[in-house]
Amino acid sequence: NAGVTQTPKFRVLKTGQSMTLLCAQDMNHEYMYWYRQDPGMGLRLIHYSVGEGTTAKGEVPDGYNVSRLKKQNFLLGLESAAPSQTSVYFCASSFYMDSNQPQHFGDGTRLSIL
Amino acid sequence: AQSVTQPDIHITVSEGASLELRCNYSYGATPYLFWYVQSPGQGLQLLLKYFSGDTLVQGIKGFEAEFKRSQSSFNLRKPSVHWSDAAEYFCAVVLSPGASGGYQKVTFGTGTKLQVIP
């Protein structure tokens, strides 16, 4: 089973460039999330979606935009990349938003902004 | 606001030795508690979870965790560590949408890196 797939796995950008990270899940999950992981800070929620066509801000949304045009895909966009956005980005999905349903994670996208 | 503390940034154990990773949480009620493992270059994989009932929970890969309300702790244990257990481990507190304002809020600890020596 593919589960949660993130593309690309690695990317290097120059300051000011834009890019889109793609997350795809094949588990028919309603809820999807984007996190960033930085050393010594754990994972922090950027944006999330509770279903197709919906998005909402998480804890650290500034500088990012998201879209959920199809249930299986959740896109994270950087309009004008900044060095502070150098991080590892993880997508996750879950079937229900109930607290007892764990989130399933992709393998991450390692993004460097020069 | 809820918080999770993993006081050990890095732990080294010998293969075959026992392991205990510490996790302390701060929350007004009994939270839902998870442990995840992250192997190098991989995403997070759920090891085990606690919601209610028996305070000793069993997970995958031979791991277990014990919830201690009086100590606000949820420590992860394994009786005999294998070299393949080398990874980073994250404790997490999960709030329901009703408690977090509309989404499944997961607060992660900062992680403990486990090194296993032969």
Short description:
The complex is a heterodimer of chains A (114) and B (118). With 114 residues, chain A is an all-beta fold.
Description:
The complex is a heterodimer of chains A (114) and B (118). Chain A has 114 residues and is an all-beta fold. Helix content of chain A is 0%, strand content 48%. In chain A, strands 2, 4, 5, 6, 9, 10 and 11 form a 7-stranded mixed beta sheet that branches. Chain A is globular, with a radius of gyration of 13 Å. Chain A starts with a strand and ends with a strand. Chain B is mostly beta strands. Helices cover 3% and strands 52% of the residues of chain B. Chain B is built from 1 helix and 12 strands, in the order ββββββββββαββ. Chain B has one helix spanning 97-100; strands at 3-5, 10-14, 19-21, 24-26, 32-38, 44-50, 56-58, 64-68, 73-78, 87-95, 105-108, 112-117. In chain B, strands 2, 5, 6, 10, 11 and 12 form a 6-stranded mixed beta sheet that branches. A 4-stranded antiparallel beta sheet of chain B has the order 3-9-8-7, with no helix packed on it. Chain B has a two-stranded antiparallel sheet with strand order 1-4. In chain B, a hairpin with a 5-residue loop joins strand 7 and strand 8 (64-68). The radius of gyration of chain B is 14 Å and the shape is globular. The termini of chain B are far apart. The mean pLDDT of chain B is 89. Classes of the chains: A mainly beta (114), B mainly beta (118).
